Amino acid sequence: MTSFRIERGPFVSAQIEAWLQLDPRFRNWPVVYALDGDEQIYVGESLNVATRFRQHLASAEKRRLKGARVVLDPTFNKSVCLDLEAFLIQRLSGDGTYRVMNRNVGISDRDYYGRADYQKIFADIFEELRRDGLFSHSLPEIENSDLFKLSPFKALTEDQEIVVLDILEGLFADIDTGVPSQVVVQGDPGTGKTVVAVYLMKLLSDVKAWDPSQQVESESPLAEFFVEGYPELLRDFRLGFIVPQMSLRKTIQRVFKRTPGLSPNMVMSPFEMGNAPEHFDVLIVDETHRLRQSGNQPAGPLYKMFSDINRRLFGADDANLTQLDWVKAKSTHQIYLMDSAQSIHTGDVPSHLLKELMTRSDDQHRRYRLTSQMRVQAGEDYVGYVRAVLSDQPPTPRSFTGYDLRFFDDMSEMRDAIRARDREVGLARLLAGFAWPWVSRRDKHAYDIQIDGVRMRWNRTDVDWVNSPTSLDEVGVIHTIQGYDLNYAGVIIGPDLRYDERAGRLAFDRTNYFDPTAANNMPRRGITFSDDEILKLVQNIYAVLLTRGMLGTYVYVCDRALRERLRPFFAAAALETDTSRFIGTD
Fold it and tell me: Which UniProt keywords apply (predicted)?
């Protein structure tokens, strides 16, 4: 039985006085409250909500809000209220019904006594507020959405918070002294590089807009930047956010459109950044490993645009210039987020330039590493395990307790299992390497992939495919999924990756590789890519696909020899898993 209650009323002085007569806890008790109106909402916590409401009514920004809700519970303490405040802000941001007015003063993931029990109560509070109309979607729908997963109000892990704090301290010192700087943040899949990038954009925008007359109450160390001196350093500052992949870029633009202080125009492709007339003070580059070099562009007109930007920025079209050079030329301070093991295309920035960026060390070049695994519930070891499995020095087969890792010999069975997982928890999708031509792109009635009598089509859209209405019936290619999370991933390792039994090593099959331009040579620069060089990119592709599933990964391998080579590494975990609950068909 829950002990909370929610008081509701208009956001006016008379209502505050009425509440004070009703319950002394409006003056002296930890509570959480929400103020809403005109599609905007503000969430806060306070030990004296009556005084806080009077402060808000004196604010030109908040006095326009019309409705007030106060969550009261005799068992609440400060830690519970901070956690509930963060819980509601994050879900409101992910729901999209209201624009969340809160500044990002720093939301951290802090444990406290009884937290698991309180979070069950939070779900009940959510449902009551949903009945009030503050939310349009269910809790699972929100938590499966990209608006939620990429929200700037995400709670940071301890190592993320330390990295953000160090980055900002160094950045402000460099701005104050007029010294240009570079920051590199490295991290494996699932360590939250994009979360950190979005968080930094919101935090810098909020510090820039902060009014010293406004009171900032937060126990986060990031609140130290909301004092006089820091906003002045950011006056007239121009911020930019670079995302190379179109699908992820469009998703982040949607997030920025729903977030006060941010604008979708801040989120750019490298080409848009290179063509921008202005210079940027800070450019944050997500997925830096997907910046491009001059060859193997995805579309013909981009070759000319690449050359035009080179001439505009450097006075000549040097074929060795890359989009990494553009970022350095167009900004004073750069923050790069990257994982070089996720390079998947011959047109990506060469590995030696990424290595140079990661290893350079001086006062103006700082490096950080994220380690906490936020995506895969198998833990931090899983990513390294997968990468080792896809190498010629495989690890000892092992299981991952609580993670549903399974191997399939029948494509129909794996597709049925993925559909069953989608009915249970949502966000279960089939993924594959680009080992079949995209016939259905021109013939909507055609099928692209046929395995074990199962006919399937590639993704119909390149933008936000994971959430598109037909995605459960399709197979997503690498370009639709890099940077996204799934609950379950059914990964088809196609015939582009084989096992050479005689040589005892993995091999690339060029005849079964259909990613346009991805394996092309660069004759203008005298560069020819060997099968071994493409093999490394294909291994990276499958490592990315195999690390998308938060709750589980299912694997099917097309090549017979490779199937037997990989079976022990993905079948081991199934021995610990009760598979009876996963049986289900359409």
Answer: ATP-binding, Helicase, Hydrolase, Nucleotide-binding
